[in-house]
Amino acid sequence: MSELQNLTALIRANTPLIVIETQDEARIVDLFRQALMHVWRALYRWTITEGLRRIDLDREDAAVGPPDASALLQMIQQADQRGIYLMLDVHPYLGYASHQRLLRDIVQRRHCQPHVLVMIGAKVELPAELEALATRFNPRLPDANALLKMLREEAADYAREHGGRRVEVDSEVVQQILRNLQGLSLPDARRIARQLIFADGALSQDDLPQLARLKFELLNRSGHLHYEYDSARFGDVAGANRLKRWISQRRGVFVSGAGPAGLDPPKGMLLLGVQGCGKSMLAKATAAGFGVPLLRLDFGTLYDKYHGETEKNLRAALASAEQLAPCVLWIDEIEKGLASGGEDGGVSRRVLGYLLTWMAERTAQVFIVATANQVHELPAELLRKGRFDEIFFVDLPAPDTRVELLRLHLSRRRLDPDGFALPALAAAQPFDLVILSCKAYDLDSSIEAIAPAVGTGTTVLPILNGLQHYAALDARFGRERVLGGLCFISATKGGDGAIAHLGKAASITFGERDGDPDSARVRAFAAACAQAGVDHLASARIAQEQWIKYTFLCALAASTCLMRAPVGRIVATRDGRALINGLYNETLMAADAEGQPIPAAARDKALAALLQVGSDLKASMLRDLEAGQQVEAEQIVGDMLDRVRATGRNAPWLMAAYAHLQAYQIARLEG
């Protein structure tokens, strides 16, 4: 049955309460007017601003009823003639018990005519007792013909506003635009199309990425999907030739949505392998290979402490992905979201069950790329034949792939690969030196990622904030293999996970943790830095260098995050200088207790920066916090607080700052 036939049938049946969720109120009102051609009723429209008006067919009378919701329901109950009452955005007024009772009396036909009440709104939520009496009518979304008509209308509007200039169109691109606009209401599709057309007077291949972004911003109301703006091409990926061929063979079928008779479009693949071998890059390249947007599902944001909310979040995220089709849905480290030790009340099992059902029954063009590092943690149900079209193992790169990797990275840095002995470099395994730089909260996964490259003669040089990481690195690789290191750089993590450098000045300091001033490996690395033009310092006092930086960084992060302001604004307040001095003095207590007192000159330099009037200096932790990102609270402020408390002394400033950061992290997890 057509949409109009369905609606007419509801009216003929005298359905007492119809609920319609839509952004396109005008189209729904017009649909009811069309229904009157088949079944006659008096038709009324009510809004809080205009009151009640009769709008049969083409007429629109003056207001005949009150704008007040209570008076409206009383008037409907007392009306002698059967009518259809379109009530726009009336649901917010149903919080009153008297309104609910009146509405139930009308719906249950107590002392009144068999009216048809219609609630229309963008999102209509009813009390449970009214929901049980309601029939929900889902308007059909515009098809390709309706969308094409809309595009022509917008193109004609552009021509009128630009002296008759016609919109330049690519017929193949228009078909792709129509496919991407399907799933949207007509007003939403019109807004996007108008923005694309009026931007440059053309509909071209360049508009497709912008269309995908606009559609994502419109539909991702759940917030559990992330649009991956940072794309990659298969040309950026070394090796994985079988996977590349597999994607290339299926591209045409996926993009068109229809293959040869009896051949289903590809549904997805699972990428297994050790960390750091390119699974994320392959997910990005897959989306680029198909020419569709890449959406990342973060399982960490789905889980909620309230019963049923996690499953609801998953349903909302997958529904958004279907509306954004065609697309690639990247589920990163899927084992972390589905593994369960039985202590979560069965949430993981329910999430797995819904995900498997959706994977089997979905009809939208959503290609899944799931990645996993720990295959033994994956539920057996997920690995059953048929869940994914194919399962690929992404292994450590073979020698020829390492040559290709080196060539790619050298070219990106505008260095001539032919100037290096690439086969010899690729064969040099394990490595002499591995430099580990990551956010401190990612240390565990980063250790596993570099482990295959660490041999008996390999040195590890960590460049992380704080000092907490040394215990984990010593336990994994042995203290004798781990140098001390730090760097001075200003950077933050963007919304897409990429590291953004905020300044040009950067240097690296390193040395033996036991203070050996003539270490062969330190001298060798210093020579390599000098040859490459890297600003560096080989220090025989690396422990003290680290504490000088750690005390400054902790005071800066604690003060600017606690006050949500740069240094200059803090010191401009009455007690701002006292706050910063208090925090810095507490960090000095920890340094003294560790046998690394900060020299007077270093203290003076740190305080000069921390107390500078008008300074816009703020910690990168504050930038991460302002962007809603995860922060290194435990590893920087929390660890410093623990070190002070271990001496038996109190650190109230650090305690306040750490409590503030913990509250932020809790709020972030709760969404």
Give a description of the structure.
This protein has 671 residues and is α/β, with parallel strands linked by helices. The chain has 5 domains: 3-136, P-loop containing nucleotide triphosphate hydrolases (Rossmann fold, 3-Layer(aba) Sandwich), CATH 3.40.50; 144-220; 234-394, P-loop containing nucleotide triphosphate hydrolases (Rossmann fold, 3-Layer(aba) Sandwich), CATH 3.40.50; 429-540, NAD(P)-binding Rossmann-like Domain (Rossmann fold, 3-Layer(aba) Sandwich); 543-670, N-(1-d-carboxylethyl)-l-norvaline Dehydrogenase, domain 2 (Orthogonal Bundle). 47% of the residues lie in helices and 14% in strands. It has 27 helices and 22 strands. The protein has a 7-stranded mixed sheet with strand order 4-3-2-5-6-1-7. Helix 4 links the parallel strand 5 and strand 6. The protein starts with a helix and ends with a helix. 30% of the residues are buried.
User: Main sheet: which strands, in order across?
Assistant: 4-3-2-5-6-1-7
Overall strand count: 22
Q: How many strands, what sense, and barrel or not for the largest sheet?
A: 7 strands, mixed
Distance between the termini: 41 Å
**Approximate strand percentage:** 5-15%
CATH architecture identity of the largest domain: 3-Layer(aba) Sandwich
How many distinct folded domains? Answer: 5
Unreliable stretches (pLDDT < 50, length at least 5) are: none
What is the assigned CATH homologous superfamily of the largest domain? P-loop containing nucleotide triphosphate hydrolases
Q: Output mean pLDDT.
A: 87
Contiguous helical run count: 27
Structural category: alpha/beta
As a whole number of angstroms, the C-alpha radius of gyration is 32 Å
